Every structure is written in structure tokens, then in C-alpha cells.
Amino acid sequence: MSDAHGTHEGLAAEAARLDAADGLRAHRAAFDLDDGVVYLDGNSLGALPRAVAPRLADVVNRQWGRLLIRSWEESGWWTAPERVGDRIGRLVGAAPGQVVVGDSTSVNVFKAVVAAVRMAGDGRDEILVDAATFPTDGYIAASAARLTGCRIRAVPAPDLAAAAGPRTAVALVNHVDYRTGRLHDLPGTTAALHGAGALAVWDLCHSAGALPVGLDEHGVDLAVGCTYKYLNGGPGAPAYLYVRRDHQDRFDSPLPGWNSHADPFGLDPAYTPADGPARGRTGTPDILSLLALDAALDVWDDVSLDAVRAKSLALTDFFLRCVAALVPAGRVESVTPAAHAERGGQVSLRCPTGAAAVMAALAERGVVGDHRRPDVLRFGFAPLYTTFAGAERAARTLAEVL
Ligand SMILES: Cc1ncc(COP(=O)(O)O)c(C=O)c1O
């Protein structure tokens, strides 16, 4: 489709103007990207920051190869989970001393939900879970319920605030829905849960690095998230756990491994929990992945999350406009909310016919997103390295494929 001014040409020219005016554009150079590919899957596996390979080479060759066991102290390995945790804390609005990095998101969901039930106290025997949650959270919350003698109730995230009652211990909510890209109301839901005397555990996998989260500002109790999406930590990078400072003394981990002991090298048969975020640790940290993540986080040093959010919304607005202008009517329908207040960092298009084949054809033409069964095409817009020209090319290629 091309109108008199050339819809393609008009949108391409607009993309070029938007890219030229983009205050974050210099950050793209910090990533090792193939310029022939439009990578729109950073909401699943973030791109590779250039700083990672040389840092890991040093960690492997010098810290491990030469210093060997001395590196636990001399290279700061032992304290890395909290040090890197503070770097993530800045990105999710947590003051230092509340985030620890380690384990997977799934494991941290388990720790957070069980600890929240223990904190909620007697008479509170209900766990609420976001009905459209990423499945791991649902599976783990159900297991946590069985272990703690709670019942579990699945409730759509927007209804959680009204659903919490005097028996609710905790609600586990995804900040951004992985399938639709819908952003849930973290401040309002957290406040309503607190009003009912319950705790809020937020899963930040799809919001950290895409928008400001404000954990401290909104009084979130506990939060978890992965680091391999917008934070670019690499495949299988360790996850993180946030425990609000005034809850830390009452945080009773269901996985009290020796690394969370107050004196791990005392090797005491009796367990005494560490103070602070280290209480959320389990076993020996995964140092290679953790330090790859540490290097990956360098790209965020001078980045404001407000600027990231502004670009993210501009990118997704522009992509939606390109799709509306270029793709034949009726072939796809956005399931991502149009309202900025309800939109995360991705656009999900329902494609009733042949969604898997469409995504495969896009990939063959150098546009990489992903497909979620049965009929959702997901396009993630990581603001540090996605361009408006890439968004335009993705929509144009989608139109060609369809
Ligand atoms: C919202 C959400 N929670 C949890 C997970 C799974 O995390 P992990 O594999 O680190 O346990 C994912 C993975 O994509 C996710 O999107």
C-alpha cells in the first residue's frame, strides 16, 4: 500500500526523523547487533552488550584461571549477589540493600510467596494469583499453597484489588502480561492489597528495563524478576529477589541454604539467617553468569528510566501506526492496550491465520519476534537498541508476508 506521499516512504522518512531525534540512539553502539536484522525479541532474550565478552574473558582467564580460590575475596565474587543486586535496584526503584541476585525467577517466586505467607500470619490462608500469569508463577504458587496449607485462587490482575479479603495472605502478580503486553496497575493494586492486610509480590520479568517500576515508592513488599530480557544478562542469567527493607528481619526463607547464613563459613549445624538481602540467597552464586550480567548492566549507567519509557511508548505507538497503515485490514489485531498507562514494552498482534508460519517467514526476511501459541505474534521493543527504522521495516515486512 502506498499513497500519494508514499505511505512507505512517508513512514520511512518519519522513522529517520525520529531516529535522528532519539536521545538514546548512542546506546545502540554498546550492543553487538547484526545491522541486517531487526531484533524484536529483547523481551525474551536481550541483545549482547559489547562489554560482556572481554569482561568474561578476564573473569575466566585471570580471576578463575590465575587467582583461583582467591577470587572469592580479591575479585569480589562473594559479595557480587548484593553488589549486582544494588545495580538492578536502581533500575526498579529500590534503594541499595534490598535486592539480591541469584537462582531463577521460578525459585525466587517460591521463596517470595512462601515467605509472604509466613509474614502474613495466622488466619490468612489464601494466595491469590494473576489468572493470566506466566505459567511458572502459577505452578509454583500452587505448590507453595499446598506446602503452607493455603488455598489458591486465580483472579484476573485488574480484579485482584477487589478480590483480596481478610483471609488473603498474598497476591502474586505479573507487572506486564507476557502474552498481551498489558501493564498492570502496580501502585493501585499494591495499595488495595495492603488495605486488605495482604502482601504484594510482583513479577517484574517484563517490566524491568522497559519502564520505571518504583518498588520503594509504591511500598511493594516483595518482587522477583529475570535479567535475560530487557536487562540483557544473557541466556539463563540469574534472577533477583527484592525484599523491602522493613520486611527483611521477618523474611523467613523456605530455602535457607548455607549462603544465606549469618556466618556461612562458621559451618554451624544450626541456622542463623543473615541480615539484609543476603537472607534471600540460597547456595553458591553462579559467578560466570552473574559477572556477565554485571558487565551487561554497564550500558544502563547513565540511562534514565523515564527516557527509556518515553522511547518505548514512542516506538510501540509508531509500530502500531505502521501496522495500521501498511498491513491489509483484518489480517492482524493488536491485543496490546492502546492506552499508555496499560501498555508495557511489547506489541502483541493476534494473527488468526498461520501465526507460526508468519513469524517464521518474518525471521527469514530478517525480522525476529516470536510466536506464542495459538495465534499471538509478539514484538518486543528494547529501547536501548531498537530503532524507529527497525519498527517501520518490521511492519512493512509483516505486510509483505501477510
Ligand atoms: C513473567 C515471567 N515469569 C517467570 C519467567 C520464568 O523465569 P525463570 O525461567 O527464570 O524461572 C518468565 C520467563 O519468560 C516470565 O516471562
**CATH topology of the largest domain, anyone?**
Aspartate Aminotransferase, domain 2
In CATH, what is the homologous superfamily of the largest domain?
Type I PLP-dependent aspartate aminotransferase-like (Major domain)
- State the distance separating the first and last CA atoms: 12 Å
Number of strands: 13
Summarize the main sheet: 7 strands, mixed
Query: What's the structural domain tally?
Result: 2
User: What Rg do the Cα atoms give?
Assistant: 22 Å
Please tag this protein with its features.
alpha/beta; binds pyridoxal-5'-phosphate; 12 helices; 36% helix; Aspartate Aminotransferase, domain 1; 402 residues; Aspartate Aminotransferase, domain 2; seven-stranded mixed beta sheet; 2 domains; four-stranded antiparallel beta sheet
Describe this structure in words.
The protein starts with 6 loop residues before the first helix and ends with a helix. Helices cover 36% and strands 13% of the residues. The protein has a 7-stranded mixed beta sheet, with helices on both faces. Strands 9-10-13-12 form a 4-stranded antiparallel beta sheet. By secondary structure, it is α/β, with parallel strands linked by helices. The protein folds into 2 domains: 7-30 and 304-401, Aspartate Aminotransferase, domain 1 (Alpha-Beta Complex); 54-300, Aspartate Aminotransferase, domain 2 (3-Layer(aba) Sandwich). Residues 1-6 have low confidence and may be disordered. Residues 104-106, 134, 136-137, 174, 178, 203, 205-206, 226, 239 line the site of pyridoxal-5'-phosphate.
